[in-house]
Amino acid sequence: MDSHAIRSCVEVEVVHRFYVPDFDGTDRSISLTGTVARQLRTVIRVGIGDRIHLFDGSGSEWEVEVDHVDKGEVQATVISAVEPVPEPSSKVTMLLGLARPERIELAIQKCSELGAVRFVPVMSERVQGGNTGKPSQKRLERWQRIAIEATEQCGRATVPVVNPPTSLMEAINQVVAEQPLLCMWEEHVDESLPLSTALKSIDSQVPRLAVLIGPPGGFSTQEAVAIHKAGAKLVTLGPRILRSETAAIAVMSAILYELGDLGDQPR
User: Fold this and answer.
1) What values do phi and psi take at 226, rounded to 5?
2) Do 69 and 97 belong to one domain?
3) Domain range for residue 73?
4) Number of domains observed in the structure of the chain
């Protein structure tokens, strides 16, 4: 790589993006307060004339220019709407069997970056910590913040939603009524499909798809039978046993690949 190419790589401008849920792009002059203003003033250290991007979480994004920076407020002018990063062809919901918080957090962070639109924490027989493993409201709020921060970082303009925890069969019955559901299960039975086969069997025009990832202890045989009877496809990820957060990231990546959302044209 020549010196000019190296300089071009180094000089790529970083655009700072912030989620403002109540942002109205029709207002030319805006005032930013609270956490966003604090980040702009103390972390990014913006000055007059600097430009940033704001998005409302629903898919719209705007470029704004900073006019004034005060202790608790940043005033800016809307310059123009910005073409958002395309979302994956299928809206993917991730049902995550409850595990240690740091493992759930990693799955939410990385799958938000990859394009998941919703996360549902699922209570099953082998939840780590038993009933005490149910996340508190404070924990759910933290998981939602992680999804927001991942969205800000990766360039998406749509923020994934983190739902309250739901019992296993209740979550499944709600999901299968609306979209195909793939259940990752480490056991091999006649009904199990390789992930590639399961993805190819789904119509590429299906607008929504759901994936169920079990807790670290996996699903019991009785749970797997009930899940299959409810309408989900049992899917194997091969002979290696993956940690729950690894399985979530691997499956989300495979879905993107199959749909042509990893830099290729959709199938």
Assistant:
1) -65, -40
2) no
3) 13-82
4) 2
231 with 253, same domain: the answer is yes
- Predicted pLDDT of residue 188: 66
Tens of pLDDT, residues 47-62: 999 999 999 998 999 9
Q: Give the C-alpha separation, 166 to 249, whole Å.
A: 21
Contact 65, 82 (CB under 8 A): no
Q: Is residue 2 part of a domain?
A: no
Instruction: At 194, list the tokens.
Output: 């390789």
pLDDT number for residue 9: 47
Distance of alpha carbon 53 from alpha carbon 81, whole angstroms:
9
CA pseudo-torsion sign 37, 39, 42, 47: negative
> How far apart are the C-alpha atoms of 207 and 221, rounded to whole Å?
30
**137 occurs within a structural domain:** yes
User: 64 forms bridges with which residues in the sheet?
Assistant: 52, 78
Report how far apart, in Å, the C-alpha atoms of 72 and of each of 36, 65, 78, 205, 250 are. 10, 17, 20, 47, 42
Structural domain contains residue 173: yes
Angle (CA) 122-127-130 rounded to 5° is: 120
250 found inside a domain: yes
DSSP, collapsed to helix, strand or coil, labels residue 145 as helix
